[in-house]
Write a structure and sequence with these properties.
Layout: E1 15-19, H1 24-35, E2 39-44, H2 47-59, E3 63-68, H3 74-80, E4 87-90, H4 105-133, E5 137-142, H5 155-175, E6 180-187, H6 196-200, H7 202-211, H8 221-231, E7 242-245
Parallel strand pairs: 1-2, 1-4, 2-3, 4-5, 5-6, 6-7
Length: 252
């Protein structure tokens, strides 16, 4: 009897781009792809920190390089795609948390420029390069559970992430016949510098721990397997969807 074989998670020979790769979830994504054998182009605004991250990846035997890029700068996004990437992971993002009635137009524009506008045109540039080369590929956005539910003082952030989730569905339909896949990973609250203010607030921390069904908040390592799955042949039939790594937050 011939048994089916598990599809490979091996990324050797693949070229990957990770935005927001200087720290937090983005750095963990870069590490996951590098450990699976991909050559990883790490992009972020903070060049010195980014170079330290790349040095750490190389010290562990990975293949990586640094590329300065501001995701709010559309020409800078276009310039990165001088050649197609087999895998693109968008982990660049920011937040401006406040009551909706206190959101300023500047905060709105700043968040949307990176979280939604930047994500949109990064996806389009990635797909355009793949289409021109006639290659398949996988585009992965680090979205959020807040792309599926609402949250305290997070109307702006939720708006940006709900937009990303809708964008992904439409783009998956558009590019599916060319075997270009696009999906999201939707974390719960992950312990990073970005979420530290929430963890420092006792009331907010209690709210988070009440919502997460598992007995802890997430760590960046919890995202690595999800990203590797979506980047690899193991997810060859997965597109237009979100992989919720949220500890059961959205289960109710």
């Amino acid at each position: 009897m011939d048994l089916p074989r598990t599809p490979s998670f091996d990324l050797r020979g693949k070229r990957a781009l990770v935005t927001g790769a200087s720290s937090g979830i983005g750095l963990a994504c870069a590490a996951a792809l590098a450990q699976a054998g991909a050559h990883v182009v790490c992009a972020a605004r903070r060049v010195e920190v980014l170079q330290e991250a790349v040095a750490a990846l190389k010290a562990q035997g990975g293949s990586a390089e640094a590329r300065a890029m501001d995701q709010a700068d559309l020409p800078a996004i276009e310039a990165v795609f001088d050649a197609p990437f087999d895998v693109v992971v968008n982990s660049a993002g920011l937040a401006r948390h406040s009551a909706a009635t206190e959101t300023t137009a500047q905060d709105y524009d700043t968040v949307m420029a990176v979280n939604l506008r930047g994500a949109y045109f990064l996806s389009a540039a990635a797909a355009s390069a793949l289409l021109k080369a006639g290659k398949p590929g996988s585009i992965i956005h680090i979205s959020s559970q807040m792309g599926h539910v609402g949250g305290i003082d997070r109307a702006l952030y939720c708006a940006s992430k709900h937009g990303v989730e809708g964008m992904i569905k439409a783009m998956a339909i558009e590019w599916g016949k060319q075997n270009i896949r696009i999906n999201s990973v939707c974390p719960t609250f992950v312990r990073t510098a970005l979420t530290q203010p929430t963890f420092d607030d006792p009331d907010r921390l209690a709210w988070v721990l009440e919502k997460i069904k598992l007995p802890r908040v997430a760590e960046v390592e919890d995202m690595m397997g999800a990203v590797l799955f979506l980047a690899s042949d193991a997810s060859a039939m997965v597109t237009g969807t979100s992989l919720k790594v949220d500890g059961g937050w959205t289960a109710e």
